[in-house]
């Protein structure tokens, strides 16, 4: 009976050998029918038992059911493996974008510390200047005998009463000037104290930001390392499971993947041709639509570029950090920053501020160049972990995750949270 099933399977054309479970049952039924039409010598029907026997039929059906159950379990395991890969990629990407955010905050806190240090230095210079001016004034007053006990001078000085009145007026004027200078010294001291406190606060924030960035970097490194190790493990497991599905189904799966890749290549060529075919300047000046075309052209230029954690500057792909330190490429927010810089719009290297870089756009009103964002919680922008650049027809250019390359893919995923149109 087993040879009959095998013959029946080989009789089915190859495109259908990898079909779903009902086809397996059909194969068994076909084999059973063939057995009934052409019984073997050892199982030739007799008048007493026309055969195949009821036991033969039962065993055949048991084998079909067992095979169908195994295929079902294997498919479920494959789906679970794919789901785990997707989850790990999202977790790694979220950790990387958190690190990008902490790195941006650290840069800002470092700049704030440098600015307050400069202001403190200027305030100290002004304080020393007013102190030197006050000291010079006091020395001058002492030398001219106008800065201390004025009564003997007023009585015994030259010029009589008028001279005394003139000297008294001068003393009063100098006293006022001295008081004003003391006020300036005090004000300069107060300003210096304020800037000193600001500098201390900025230094403390810088230290805290450095710690947060280090922690975020370590978390991202751990997430990426786990993702890469799991990719290798799960891919090996998937290959093993696919072998269990049988050569026919494995062949069908390979054909399906090859067709998907071919369709992706066709779609990529069409999109590239649409945006980069003529390479003529975009008409209409710096309009929203014109900027969007410039952004898409800039991003499409780097299709096939490796993903590099922390990679990408306004000048193009670059070495990243940690696992990306040896790879020249882009991460998702680095690609968005680069492409929009080509259109004259400055973005940070972080999805957190890219999300707020312009008005939010309904998904059904997207234009090429708009940024589309993805989050682990689509009701909370704080969980955004990925960004892509819309190119039209539900597609985007993206730098997806460690181990992948810049590519064109669909935007309609379960974690799509919304879109932004960056503004000048």
Automatic annotation (TrEMBL):
GO terms for biological process: proteolysis. The keyword rRNA-binding does not apply. The keyword Hydrolase applies. Pfam families: NLPC_P60. Residues 41-63 are annotated as: Disordered. Keywords: Coiled coil, Hydrolase, Protease, Thiol protease. Residues 106-133, 217-258 form a coiled coil. One of its GO terms (molecular function) is cysteine-type peptidase activity. Gene3D superfamilies: endopeptidase domain like (from Nostoc punctiforme). It comes from the Bacteria. Residues 289-424 form the NlpC/P60 domain. Belongs to the peptidase C40 family. PANTHER family: NLP_P60 DOMAIN-CONTAINING PROTEIN-RELATED, PEPTIDOGLYCAN DL-ENDOPEPTIDASE CWLO. This is NlpC/P60 family protein. It comes from Actinomadura soli. The lineage of its organism: Bacteria, Bacillati, Actinomycetota, Actinomycetes, Streptosporangiales.
């Amino acid at each position: 009976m087993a040879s009959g099933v095998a013959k029946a399977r080989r009789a089915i054309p190859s495109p259908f050998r990898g079909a779903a479970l009902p086809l397996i049952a059909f194969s068994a039924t076909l084999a059973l029918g063939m057995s009934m039409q052409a019984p073997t010598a050892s199982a030739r029907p007799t008048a007493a038992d026309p055969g195949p026997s009821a036991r033969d039929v039962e065993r055949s059906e048991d084998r079909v059911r067992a095979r169908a159950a195994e295929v079902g379990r294997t498919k479920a395991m494959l789906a679970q493996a794919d789901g785990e890969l997707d989850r790990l990629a999202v977790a790694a990407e979220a950790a990387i974008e958190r690190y990008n955010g902490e790195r941006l905050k650290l840069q800002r806190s470092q700049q704030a510390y440098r600015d307050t240090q400069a202001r403190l230095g200027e305030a100290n210079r002004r304080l020393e200047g007013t102190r030197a001016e006050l000291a010079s004034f006091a020395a001058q007053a002492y030398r001219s005998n106008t800065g201390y006990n004025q009564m003997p001078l007023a009585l015994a000085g030259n010029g009589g009463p008028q001279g005394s009145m003139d000297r008294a007026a001068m003393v009063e004027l100098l006293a006022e000037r001295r008081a004003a200078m003391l006020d300036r010294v005090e004000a300069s001291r107060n300003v210096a104290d304020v800037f000193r406190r600001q500098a201390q606060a900025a230094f403390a924030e810088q230290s805290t930001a450095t710690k947060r960035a280090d922690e975020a970097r370590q978390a991202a490194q751990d997430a990426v390392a786990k993702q890469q190790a799991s990719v290798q493990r799960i891919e090996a497991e998937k290959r093993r499971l696919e072998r269990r599905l049988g050569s026919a189904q494995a062949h069908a799966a390979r054909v399906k993947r090859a067709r998907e890749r071919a369709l992706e290549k066709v779609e990529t060529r069409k999109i590239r041709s649409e945006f980069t075919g003529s390479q003529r300047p975009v008409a209409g000046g710096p309009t929203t639509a014109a900027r969007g075309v410039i952004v898409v052209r800039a991003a499409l230029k780097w299709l096939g570029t490796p993903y590099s954690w922390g990679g990408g500057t306004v000048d193009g792909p670059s070495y990243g950090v940690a696992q990306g330190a040896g790879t020249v490429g882009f991460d998702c927010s680095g690609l968005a920053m680069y492409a929009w810089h080509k259109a004259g719009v400055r973005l940070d290297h972080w999805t957190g501020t890219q999300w707020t870089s312009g008005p939010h756009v309904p998904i059904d009103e997207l234009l090429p160049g708009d940024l589309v964002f993805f989050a682990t919680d689509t009701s909370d922008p704080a969980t955004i972990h990925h960004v892509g650049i819309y190119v039209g027809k539900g597609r985007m250019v993206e730098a997806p995750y460690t181990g992948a390359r810049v590519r064109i893919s669909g935007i309609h995923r379960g974690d799509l949270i919304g879109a932004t149109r960056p503004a000048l």
